């Protein structure tokens, strides 16, 4: 029998509510995906301000849920389970979604699943490309995370293979955008500029690729500093900054390291499928380069469409549906958000 | 009518079920824990326990009265997010109540017969306050100030309620009355008129009184020495 799962996401600056249908055969169908973003309120601060995000979540929670239900043509009485991001994320932001989710579950008398945001980024791919093969490798890249994960079962078994030792990839984009006087968030404007530029114009460093570096960890702090130094030196010489070339060369360095390590990890572990998700997955150079290298290595590449890659409630509903299907015990109603929830804890 | 009352504006995690009639209020079930860090964790369990103690079910509720602060804790939002989702799921109206008014409503039902002030802890060495006449009608506030600044507004020996009054009794020069935190009966009394008349409630918007701490970035920092 099909079951409806409502998912709530509030870990950063997007308030998301999604609805999915879990079919008897275990497949999960997307019914609604509504998001209210506070990104514009953070733009003048150059990064997410936790208190501003938390205030926006509270304001947007019920209206976003109402919109998602209207989109799906459902009412709350049709909902069979609630899933919510329990972590990782901003404490005050997570609290709003978790409080609302607990109240929905209590009032509707349905099970509650507090789930892991990072696993949600992987589970969302099943909405577009169907069940995930086991095992598969996931590369999560966004403003908050940069991780390589081995996924044996998205509902129960995820192991971290590598992660960033300093900045997330998306953070490096935001900082480089600031250096180049491009708007926040930095991903889209850098991608646009990079398409006009020459990716080989400047040889920016590839972090953590030395023989003694951890094979599957990442570092973007040195790259960000190298870009700033290069721009400052050009300014000192009185030159006009070739923004397009700097953006293209920076983006090439990011995409090169991410795809090289992901493909190598998959090859070494004998894993045949790579999933790339998270806000930075929408980056044009990353997806193109990943596609080329996956073809060369004989690896199947799955990248959810951009709307599913960024933070949303559908990814949490999708993960909740897989967790429900796996027969995992629901969360207790005294569930607390955990801002540093490890990726290996998929539901709590 | 059956009203669920919720407040998370102070260190207390407060939930209760109250029978409201034109003649008065009767508390049927209540569950309160003093723990400023547990609002998110405990509130929904407290609501369910209070409802069970009242011998009723969530779906029997007619309305919700929810404290909207002012409150310094991130947990303030736990109460409002919970009330909002309960109201949405149960199809009942959620009445916003200034949490200081809820304390005042409780004070005014006692033998208080002079104007008084309600003071709660705003942290960062400040207090939230509002002043009331003897009937419990708010005359000034809510505001946020240092206790010494608030003291200037108050006549010597003013009667004060709220945990902030206890904490800063000497600096404020006040005589302290109960309650220290909003009570379920006080929350319902403060929303009484709207509840009984069935007036559509106003928006469930927190009384923050402070701007978020956030600084706009200045000039870009150079990474190379000049
Ligand atoms: Zn994310």
The CATH architecture of the largest domain in chain A would be 2-Layer Sandwich
- The end-to-end span of chain A amounts to 25 Å
* The CATH class of the largest domain in chain B: Alpha Beta
Assign an overall shape of chain A.
Answer: globular
Largest sheet of chain A: 5 strands, mixed
Number of domains of chain B: 2
Structural class of chain A: alpha/beta
Placed side by side, the strands forming the largest sheet of chain A appear as: 3-2-1-4-5
CATH homologous superfamily designation of the largest domain in chain B: ATPase, nucleotide binding domain
Residue windows where pLDDT falls under 50 for at least 5 positions of chain B? none
Mean pLDDT of chain A: 96
Describe the structure.
Chain A: It comes from Amycolatopsis marina. The complex is a heterodimer of chains A (348) and B (226). Chain A folds into 2 domains: 3-124 and 312-325, Nucleotidyltransferase, domain 5 (2-Layer Sandwich); 136-306, ATPase, nucleotide binding domain (Nucleotidyltransferase, domain 5, 2-Layer Sandwich), CATH 3.30.420.40. Chain A is built from 12 helices and 10 strands. Chain A has helices spanning 39-43, 50-72, 91-108, 117-123, 125-129, 169-179, 187-196, 221-236, 243-269, 284-297, 306-309, 313-325, and strands at 3-9, 14-22, 28-37, 81-87, 112-116, 136-141, 146-153, 157-163, 273-277, 300-302. Chain A has a 5-stranded mixed beta sheet with strand order 3-2-1-4-5, sandwiched between helices. Chain A has a 5-stranded mixed beta sheet with strand order 8-7-6-9-10, with helices on both faces. In chain A, helix 3 links the parallel strand 4 (81-87) and strand 5 (112-116). The longest helix of chain A has 27 residues, at 243-269. Chain B is built from 8 helices and 10 strands. In chain B, the strands form 2 sheets. Chain B has a 5-stranded mixed beta sheet, sandwiched between helices. A 5-stranded mixed beta sheet of chain B has the order 8-7-6-9-10, sandwiched between helices. The complex binds zinc ion. Zinc ion binds next to helix 4 of chain A.
């Amino acid at each position: 029998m099909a079951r409806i799962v409502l998912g709530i996401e509030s870990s950063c600056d997007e308030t998301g509510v999604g609805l999915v249908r879990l079919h008897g055969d275990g497949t999960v169908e997307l019914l609604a995906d509504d998001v209210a973003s506070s990104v514009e309120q953070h733009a003048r601060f150059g990064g997410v301000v936790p208190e501003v995000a938390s205030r926006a979540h509270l304001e947007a929670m019920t209206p976003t849920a109402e919109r998602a239900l209207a989109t799906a043509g459902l009412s709350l009485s049709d909902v069979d389970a609630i899933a919510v991001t329990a972590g990782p994320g901003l404490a005050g932001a997570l609290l709003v979604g978790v409080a609302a989710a607990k109240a929905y579950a209590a009032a509707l008398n349905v099970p509650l699943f507090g789930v892991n945001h990072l696993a949600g980024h992987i589970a969302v791919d099943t909405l577009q490309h169907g069940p995930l093969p086991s095992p598969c490798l996931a590369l999560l890249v966004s403003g908050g995370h940069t991780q390589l994960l081995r996924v044996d079962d998205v509902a129960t078994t995820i192991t971290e293979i590598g992660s960033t030792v300093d900045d997330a990839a998306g953070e490096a984009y935001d900082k480089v955008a600031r250096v180049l006087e491009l708007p926040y968030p930095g991903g889209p404007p850098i991608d646009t500029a990079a398409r006009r530029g020459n990716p080989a114009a400047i040889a920016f460093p590839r972090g953590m690729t030395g023989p003694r570096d951890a094979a599957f960890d990442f570092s973007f702090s040195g790259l960000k500093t190298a870009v700033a130094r290069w721009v400052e030196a050009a300014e000192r010489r009185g030159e006009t900054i070739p923004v397009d070339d700097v953006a293209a060369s920076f983006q090439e360095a990011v995409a090169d390291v991410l795809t090289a390590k992901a493909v190598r990890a998959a090859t070494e572990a004998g894993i045949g499928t790579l999933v790339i998700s998270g806000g930075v997955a929408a980056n044009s150079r990353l997806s193109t380069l990943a596609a080329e290298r996956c073809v060369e290595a004989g690896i199947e590449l799955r990248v959810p469409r951009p709307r599913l890659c960024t933070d949303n409630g559908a990814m949490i509903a999708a993960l909740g549906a897989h967790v429900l299907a796996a027969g995992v015990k629901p969360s207790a109603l005294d569930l607390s958000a955990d801002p540093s929830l490890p990726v290996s804890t998929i539901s709590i | 009518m059956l009203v669920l009352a919720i407040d998370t504006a102070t260190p207390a995690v407060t939930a209760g079920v109250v029978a409201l009639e034109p003649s008065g209020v009767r508390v049927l079930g209540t569950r309160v824990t003093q723990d400023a860090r547990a609002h998110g964790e405990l509130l929904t369990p407290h609501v369910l326990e209070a409802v069970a103690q009242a011998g009723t079910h969530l779906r029997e509720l007619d309305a919700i009265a929810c404290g909207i602060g002012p409150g310094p804790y991130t947990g303030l939002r736990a109460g409002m997010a919970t009330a909002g989702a309960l109201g949405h799921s149960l199809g009942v109206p959620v009445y916003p109540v200034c949490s200081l008014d809820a304390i005042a409503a409780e004070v005014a039902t006692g033998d208080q017969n002079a104007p008084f002030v309600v003071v709660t802890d705003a942290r960062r060495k400040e207090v939230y306050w509002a002043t009331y006449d003897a009937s419990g009608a708010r005359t000034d506030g809510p505001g946020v100030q240092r206790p010494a600044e608030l003291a200037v507004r108050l006549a010597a020996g003013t009667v004060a309620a709220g945990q902030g009054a206890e904490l800063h009794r000497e600096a404020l020069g006040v005589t302290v009355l109960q309650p220290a935190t909003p009570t379920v009966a006080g929350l319902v009394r403060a929303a009484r008129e709207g509840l009984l008349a069935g007036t559509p409630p106003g928006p469930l918007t927190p009384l923050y009184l402070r701007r978020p701490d956030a600084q706009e970035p200045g000039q870009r920092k150079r990474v190379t020495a000049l």
